[in-house]
Amino acid sequence: MLSVLAPFPNASRSFSCSSAVKQSSDLEVEVDPLRARPYAFAMKSVWLKNFGCQMNAYDAARLIGVLQECGYHVVKTPKEAHVIILNTCHIRRKATEKVFSDLGRLRVFKEGPLASKIVVMGCVAQALGEEILRRAPWVDLVVGPQAVHKIPSLLAALPQATGYVFLDGSAAEKFQKSPLPTLTATNVTVFLPIQEGCDNCCTYCVVPHTRGREFSRPVSVIIEEARSLLQQGVKEITLIGQNVNAYRGEEQGHSSCDFGALLFQIANLPGLLRLRYTTSHPQHINDSLLHAHATLPQLMPFVHLPAQSGSDRILKAMHRPYTRAGYLDAIDKLRSVRSDMAFSSDFIVGFPGETEQDFLQTLSLVESVAYAQAYAFKYSSRARTPAASFPDPVPEPVKEERLARLLDALRAQQCAFNQQSLEQVVPVLFEKPGRYEGEIVGRTPYFQPVSVCASQDRIGHRLLVHITKVLPHSLKGVVEEPIGS
Ligand code: SAH
Ligand code: SF4
Ligand code: F3S
């Protein structure tokens, strides 16, 4: 790895233009010329494509803020960009391959009129480092996910002839040294990271290699960020972290604050209508979290609780620290404090050594829980993970067949769950305009998307909706009455 580069020419932090930019969840960013401030030096343009989880989306939003402070503006196509950035995901082989196929397509812009610089950041950057330069020597900069705030200075000091790799940095510094993401008037619901990294080391997973050890942000910083979001009109906050309910943050006057206690502090902030969190781990469903679900009306009765498998043998090989019975016990406990609690999950099929019997155990776990929705993936072997060298790989056609059976079961459950809403009246928090003119869309407490015909000024309001139609992945309805904004 190369040494640390010189900082960006001074003045870069002496002004901010982050409020000049509107940003949507897919990071298509528009500049509002009325709010843009004059730049101290020539303006440069940046185009960013985001892959992966909510944490990546959040990092990308912070990066945009850092770049704007340094005089960059965001453009809609790579053709217009001085700097092209891919914020990457390494979770499965396909995610990584997408990055290399995009890099192949983007190469042409290096030869274009802007002689664009190409940057690979995020989890592929951290995991593969210099290998990226070997496979795509036209890449200028490879940066790990904890060095978001350093990207302008790294860009300013790039060597001409060769690519550069920078994989240092800490989550703590990233959060401290980058501005909060800018909101738009229609940001009804936002992600707020409280924790990053993972100490679990599941044998199939790259996240501990890409995001590092668990780090919890201090309580005061989270509360301040939540307050600021709510003051700007946000109505729903989703707390995010790779292992969100393992949160243990520093709190003034106390040694540490656990996840349940943090939920109490956030739920009572003025203006918050709904509170969610993801991704939680079955190991950390403790009394404090159960108490929060039993007590806080703002905390939605919908939990994403990845099981991965229903077979004890496979859970052990995956190094998941619970048994099938333990997982079902966590589900029961959550349902005992909120009888309407609904669940989603992640499953992996075709883990090395998974037999038909093991797979049937997964299907029977699905049957026992009755999920509102869930994701299922074929096992993907990842370099540097223990499972990559496990014996007995499951043949691809068997994986395909098991995935299809599991998805059938999950789809049937999702349909059954959605069907229960028909002719019911449910509270919906409206988030954005719908696909068709005159429509707006929102979500039920159980995260089901709902569309209704209503005026756009209802966005940001929680209204009672009579559900009149159930579609495969969403609901349609008619607004009955408001229940307070
Ligand atoms: N921290 C979360 C999950 C993060 S990754 C948790 O522990 O549940 C999101 C999902 O990707 C995982 O839940 C898992 O189902 C899936 N996944 C991770 N590594 C995978 C691999 N090597 N092959 C297939 N799916 C994988
Ligand atoms: Fe990966 Fe396991 Fe950590 Fe989730 S808990 S991020 S699956 S190592
Ligand atoms: Fe992917 Fe990294 Fe998120 S590997 S799922 S972008 S933590």
Q: How would you sum up the major sheet?
A: 6 strands, parallel
End-to-end Cα distance, whole Å, is 53 Å
The helix tally amounts to: 14
The radius of gyration over CA amounts to: 23 Å
Q: Based on CA inertia axes, which overall geometry fits?
A: globular
Our estimate of the beta-strand percent is 15-25%
Low-confidence stretches: 1-41
Write down how many β-strands occur, each being a DSSP E stretch of 2 or more residues.
23
What is the spatial order of strands in the main beta sheet?
4-3-5-6-7-8
| Mean pLDDT over the full residue set | 89
Q: What hetero molecules are in the model?
A: S-adenosyl-L-homocysteine, iron/sulfur cluster, FE3-S4 cluster
User: What is the CATH architecture assignment of the largest domain?
Assistant: Alpha-Beta Horseshoe
As for the CATH topology of the largest domain, it is pyruvate-formate lyase- activating enzyme
Helix- and strand-based class? alpha/beta
CATH class of the largest domain: Alpha Beta
- CATH homolog superfamily of the largest domain: tm_1862 like domain
Number of folding domains? Answer: 3
Helix content: 25-40%
Structure notes:
With 485 residues, the protein is of the alpha/beta class. It has three domains: 150 residues, 3-Layer(aba) Sandwich (Rossmann fold), CATH 3.40.50.12160; 246 residues, pyruvate-formate lyase- activating enzyme; 58 residues, Beta Barrel (OB fold (Dihydrolipoamide Acetyltransferase, E2P)), CATH 2.40.50. It is built from 14 helices and 23 strands. The strands form seven sheets. A six-stranded parallel sheet has the order 4-3-5-6-7-8, with helices on both faces. It has a five-stranded mixed β-barrel with strand order 19-20-21-23-22. The chain is globular. The termini are far apart. The structure holds S-adenosyl-L-homocysteine (SAH), iron/sulfur cluster and FE3-S4 cluster. The site of S-adenosyl-L-homocysteine has 17 residues, from strand 17.
